[in-house]
Specification:
10 helices; six-stranded parallel sheet; alpha/beta; single chain
Length: 329
């Protein structure tokens, strides 16, 4: 069983390299990969060594893996060889995962859709932390994959209206296809358009999903009085010139950091779910077709074409959202 993996030997360079096929240890699974999804925001940031990343190379990237169980480690009794499984593991033909970290893939759910389980879970933890109530207006800044998933999840939570804001018309078109109640260009007319859609009170929740430092003051500005601002995007750099008295304190805003690592280790509770619980819920929503995924998959590559996929990502082509790598013959 020859194994291959995606490697970044240095910033901005992606290669395919042979590697050892590991043997599963106690409690582990060996997984034969069927498809992986490139995370365009986080992987691009680490690929290019942007601020607030490790900036260490070489790296073996990836955390959206769909495959089938190839071998069981000692003591594993709740999985069988041949079962399809989703794990937050790397882009490689064979990967190891602990048996308790896997999510079963429902019958009939295509591999490339199932590969959105982890990004769905990341978006879901931000929406949980927002504690959205039925009928509250929600604005999502950013129409990348995380923003588009968060927009749909906010809508499922009962937000009304749900509005996507972006600077790019193509990205706003993706949001329209994914079911946003309204899409708005981030320009000089934005505040007036939001008042028309949300009323003078403004949105109850603003989800910042771009990761751009300059977007955070915009999120504070757009949020309504006593609103909640959810920092879902991993900010790559420092935000300057925030007047917290004017922008946060006087408006009574609640600012919530929603990084994927900020989770309970074991037991879920309202608004505060474990990673596995969110992954399982995202998979359930994908299987029930509650999340619009088809227009978000913009490019498909074989695993041998992974360097081409990362070259496209490096260009920051706004037409590129979901980049799926196929690892099947």
């Amino acid at each position: 069983m020859q194994n291959y993996q995606v490697v970044w030997p240095e910033a901005g360079i992606a290669t395919i390299e042979p590697c050892e096929t590991p043997a599963p240890g106690p409690g582990q699974l060996l997984i034969r990969t069927r498809a992986t999804l490139i995370s365009p925001g986080t992987e691009r940031a680490f690929f290019l060594g942007l601020p607030n990343t490790t900036q260490r190379f070489p790296q073996s990237p990836g955390y959206n893996n769909v495959g089938e169980v190839a071998a069981l480690g000692e003591g594993v009794t709740d999985w069988q060889v041949g079962e399809r499984i989703a794990t937050p593991t790397r882009h490689a033909a064979y990967v190891l995962a602990h048996a308790t970290d896997g999510v079963r893939i429902p019958a009939g759910l295509p591999d490339e859709r199932a590969a959105f389980f982890e990004l769905g879970a990341i978006a879901l933890q931000g929406v949980h932390k927002a504690r959205i109530e039925l009928g509250e207006a929600v604005v999502v800044i950013g129409a990348g994959l995380i923003g588009l998933l968060a927009m749909q999840l906010a809508k499922l939570q009962g937000a009304a209206p749900v509005i996507t804001v972006d600077q790019d018309e193509q990205r706003l078109d993706f949001a329209h296809q994914a079911g946003a109640d309204a899409v708005l260009m981030a320009d000089s007319h934005l505040s007036a358009e939001l008042s028309r859609l949300c009323g003078d009170q403004g949105p109850a929740v603003v989800i910042e999903a771009t990761g751009h430092p300059a977007a955070i003051p915009t999120a504070f500005d757009l949020a309504g009085w006593c609103g909640r601002v959810i920092l879902l995007g991993s900010t790559r750099g420092e935000t300057e010139q925030v007047n917290f008295y004017r922008d946060v304190h006087k408006k009574g805003l609640t600012v919530i950091g929603a990084h994927n690592s900020a989770r309970p280790a074991h037991d879920s509770r309202p608004g505060w779910w474990t990673r596995l619980a969110d992954q399982q819920t995202a998979m359930k929503l994908l299987a029930l077709d509650r999340l619009v995924i088809h227009p978000l998959i913009t490019h498909r590559f074989t695993w041998q074409q992974a360097p081409q996929a990362y070259a496209l990502l490096k260009q920051w082509n706004k037409d590129a959202l979901g980049l799926v790598l196929s690892w099947t013959p």
